[in-house]
Amino acid sequence: xxxxxxxxxxxxxxxxxxxxxxxxGWVVLFHLWGDLEFFPPVPxxxxxxxxxxxxxxxxxxxxxxxxxxxxFRDGFQGVPLFMMISGLSLTIAAxxxxxALAWPKFFAQRFRKLLVPYWAGVVLTYGxxxxxxxxxxxxxGGGFGDHFANGVSISLASRINVDAGVVFAxxxxxxxxxxxxxxxxxxxxxxFVGLLAQYYLLxxxxxxxxxxxxxxxxxxxxxxATVMANWWEISRYGEPELQFRLVTGWAPFxxxxxxxxxxxxxxxxxxxxxxxxxxxxxxxxxxxxxxxxFAAHTAxxxxxxRWSVHYWQALALPLVTLGIALLALPLLxxxxxxxxxxxxxxxxxxxxxxxxxxxxxxxxxxxxxxxLRLEGIGDGAWWAFLVAVYxxxxxxxxxxxxRVLGLMPRRSTTVRERDVRRTDGELASPANAxxxxxxxxxxxxxxx
Length: 448
Description:
Elements: H1 14-37, H2 43-56, H3 60-73, H4 78-97, H5 103-140, H6 144-150, E1 153-155, E2 158-159, H7 164-172, H8 192-213, H9 215-237, H10 244-249, H11 255-269, H12 274-280, H13 283-303, H14 316-333, H15 343-353, H16 355-374, H17 379-404
Antiparallel strand pairs: 1-2
């Protein structure tokens, strides 16, 4: 992957950080919205709601809210976007490092940047839970241990149960993947760390395979492998939702999200990508990619949780991932220009750089927000809390936390991509390019 300690700010691709900012915003909105809705139905229901409002609705506002509900419901798909970005970034860095790439050092650096923030998030979550338990004791009596173990809520209808097994699973990480009751133990948003660790371990083998058989066969093989894994799960257990931990937390059931990013990384950084990159930049190709991406994403969305189609559900997440990759492709392959230096894009890029830290702090702040709702705070005051406290506190804490944990670049994030691309818009060659390209672990969280 290249040396994170040798990373230079000029080596960051603004488009990657912008996508990361979009993904973390999508995930956090899904969490907040999901805490209000509590077990929302499958995306198909929101498509039907939007279609009904467009055809028979009660005015533009209802159409707008039906659309935003669909966007929020799909927020869990920020996770596949994050995993795609990870595959993309690792592949760019691997090509740039060339023969200097050392896998033992790669694993040591990657897992340090993945696990140290994870454990910091675990400690922060337990600390906030302890403060909430003390508050519950002060306002309602009872024992601290009872409140801490069973009294902290994540929504009005869901409480976090803490015992010795949950504590062990949360710190050891791997046990979260083997028992349903430990999967969200208790940091609901940090389950993705176990999945990302699997991708890190698989990356050397996948990278060699992609170089050996070619990008297109690689995509076909890994798409097919992902579909077949989900097909097996359906034939073995009945429906994907019945084995949520398995199909969500284990790499074989969602491998394509990572390998799709690897293919885009090849397009941006491999020595022989120039004809393909020029082809991908053609306006007609970009238009086709956007149309195909929208079609694939919608088709996958409509298959999620649709028990009546049975085995066709195996295509759901792979199609969604394909759609997201195609929709993101124009931003990633475009020549750098004025878009990257606009204030909104600079803001998204900054948020993207801090995404892991934002997720850690946001997950703890969700507990605070839930406690306020549990105490009967009015809807107006609760929304005021989200705008005036939740968002600014999350950002203010995430910034120094990200710096302390080594998740920030050494210098302030640039969005001009200077020294990364040649004047003709191609990526710099491995010989003169920085070794690291925005490959810090990315925050992701949530579930369907």
